[in-house]
Design brief:
single chain; six-stranded parallel β-sheet
């Protein structure tokens, strides 16, 4: 029996296990949305902005590993998806985007709202094609889904509203989507080369990324065999840090010194499932081996002594029998000791101080201590990411996502929405910068509309804090970074969401406890210290010189108070 393209599309999404379609309705989407309305298994989630819908779909895909879907109407509607789709694609999240198009007979005539979806989405997808006729269904849709799932990224289909309503005949190519996860490891010859390099080295450090997902037990076995410290990249934190005596922290600009020194002092660095992008933080003298499931990533960040294609778990499992048991653990112990010292120093910064603006470190530490053991954290870029990286303890079962590769503002709240829809019974906490939260603030109404129990923690320092810090390091007085914020808690209350305002350190613990215990959504507006610096684990001469120039310029400009606040908050009495 003939059915419409829209009906077939929704049917195939149902068969693929899709639970939600995130988007904003529009006339070019009406045929598809109406089919979703009649679906027994797929729920349409209505947003106030398509960018938020794409971020939410990306979060759902990252957390579940399943295909997630977002949709936008023609022209401006689907263009708003682009930023969230870039983030999903760079986060290896399997997302299908449905980009509705103008009426098919008007394509190429500069019609109202006409754009070129195939050109627009090409750079943020593995597959981007237009369904111009019912005769292309279901093949193009199935190919798109297979790309998204098979390559862990974005696929886009574009179709006009009138094409969605075309009748199509039964198609014998219609079949289930294949969720293949092959076991991939290097050849035996390559494994022998890897084993030889490891056995010859005296100080091996593992740099672990998101590709270590599902390999925790193998990493511990490897750490025990070769007595190697493990440094995690930011996206590797949730997969590596928990219950791991070999973890010595994170490296990079927002890492800590123990992570930096473990990498720098090694004589062999094993990069496992990470495409760590910052060349300045690679070791100056070590040999480097990179293992990645995607061969095109090998060697694009640094010089390699060996590049291997494979899954981390399968490769470590295969190479372990060829490794000699290391008995000298002095390098590991030195790295562990430095890490413990770093942790003590970090916790010294995470204490309440009466009469002083709330330290964001303290706020984040309290959140980590009080959150559920399986809480899902989302975080905005900038200083919330810094504090999450340093102070959120990744217990077994916890998750941490953010725009860590794409680096977009405004991701924390919409990603929390997607996370809460994916896991309605789990605690979801969004660490929001005041600038990031305000950028997509309209979708707090989505939280209100669906009564999602998301906890929004706003780090309110009335500043684009990380940008201000970058200016200071460059020797420039901050400019254009100040934010005149409302009382976000009162705003939430006006909307119908519980709002809590915190201005004193002594009130932080009680406020967070009350917020986490509340059964519905909560916004906690925390006024944090604007002068707090997120210091990198190593300070280059140019950075130190730049910061000194900033302090001199601010003093000459007559703003000595800001200089004093910065010094007292970050150096004096700490």
């Amino acid at each position: 029996m003939a059915k419409t393209v829209a009906a077939s599309l929704v049917e195939i999404l149902e068969q693929a296990g899709v639970k939600h379609v995130h988007g904003v309705v529009g006339d070019s989407l009406n045929g598809i949305v109406d089919e979703i309305r009649n679906s027994k298994t797929i729920k349409w989630i209505h947003y106030r902005h398509e960018e938020a819908a794409a971020f939410a779909a990306g979060a759902e895909a990252q957390l579940t590993g399943r295909l997630a879907v977002c949709a936008g109407s023609c022209g401006p509607g689907n263009m708003h998806l682009i930023n969230g789709l870039y983030d999903a694609h760079r986060s290896n999240a399997p997302v299908l985007a449905i980009a509705a198009h103008i009426p098919s007979e008007q394509i190429g005539t500069s019609y109202f709202q006409e754009t070129r979806p195939e050109s627009l989405f090409r750079e943020c997808s593995y597959y981007c094609e237009t369904i111009a006729s019912a005769r292309q269904m279901p093949r193009v849709l199935q190919i798109a889904m297979q790309h998204a799932i098979g390559q862990n990224g974005v696929a886009v289909i574009s179709l006009s509203g009138d094409v969605a309503m075309e009748k199509m005949e039964d198609e014998n190519l219609e079949h289930a989507i294949f969720l293949n996860r092959p076991a991939v490891r290097p050849s035996d010859e390559e494994l022998q080369k890897l084993a030889q390099l490891i056995n010859q080295a005296k100080k091996v450090t593992l740099l672990c990324g998101a590709g270590c997902a599902g390999a925790h037990d193998m990493l511990l076995a490897l750490g025990d065999k070769i007595k190697s410290p493990m440094v995690h990249a930011l996206r590797g934190k949730e997969h590596v840090q928990h219950d791991n005596p070999y973890d010595v922290g994170m490296t990079g600009l927002i890492g800590i010194s123990s992570g930096y020194h473990a990498v720098e002092e090694s004589d062999l660095l094993l990069m496992l499932g990470t495409d760590f992008p910052y060349k300045e933080w690679f070791p100056s003298k070590s040999k480097i081996v990179q293992l990645d499931i995607r061969p095109e990533r090998l060697g694009r960040r640094c010089r390699l002594d060996l590049g291997l294609t494979g899954d981390v778990r399968e490769t470590v499992k295969a190479v372990l029998p060829f490794l000699e048991q290391v008995t000298d653990s002095s390098f590991l112990e030195k790295c562990q000791e430095r890490y413990q010292d770093n942790r003590k120093n970090l916790l010294e910064h995470a204490k309440p101080v009466a009469g002083v603006a709330i330290h964001p470190e303290y706020l984040t530490h309290v959140l980590s201590e009080q959150a559920a053991a399986d809480a899902i954290f989302t975080t905005d870029v900038g200083t919330p990411t810094v504090w999450a990286a340093r102070y959120v303890d990744m217990k077994t079962g916890r998750r941490l996502i953010g725009s860590f590769n794409h680096g977009s503002m405004a991701s924390a709240m919409p990603q929390a929405i997607g996370a809460q829809f994916a896991y309605p019974d789990r605690q979801v906490i969004a660490l929001c910068g005041d600038g990031g939260f305000a950028m997509l603030m309209g979708d707090i109404l989505t939280i209100f509309q669906y009564d999602l129990p998301v906890k929004l923690i706003v780090y309110n320092n009335s500043s684009l804090g990380f940008v201000a810090m970058e200016m200071k390091v460059g020797g420039m007085p901050p400019f254009g970074t100040d934010l005149k914020n409302p009382d976000f808690a009162k705003m939430a209350e006006a909307i119908g969401i519980k709002g809590v305002r915190v201005e004193e350190s002594e009130n932080v613990e009680a406020a967070i406890a009350a917020a986490l215990a509340h059964p519905g959504p909560v916004l906690v507006d925390v006024v944090v210290n604007q002068a707090e610096l997120s210091m990198p684990p190593k300070i280059e001469f140019e950075q130190a010189k730049g910061f000194s120039l900033y302090m001199l310029r601010q003093t000459l400009l007559g703003d000595g108070k800001e200089v004093w606040d910065t010094l007292s908050s970050n150096f004096l009495g700490k």
